[in-house]
Input
Amino acid sequence: MTSPVRTARAETPISDLVMWMSTAGLHHLPVVATDEKLIGIVSQTDLVAQMLAGAVDGAEAPRPALAAGVPA
Output
């Protein structure tokens, strides 16, 4: 576990989460409300799924064959 605990807010951009998790070597990140109460946990898998869905600003939308795991 990392100390102090690194947390995110629900409104934190996905691109920031990717940067934080990759530079710190984190696999999961707690998501807290403004009162610091836990409201969820985001995982690397969650971020990859969102990137594949094109949710990251500037991200290319995946080709359907690639998104399905079939080589183009």
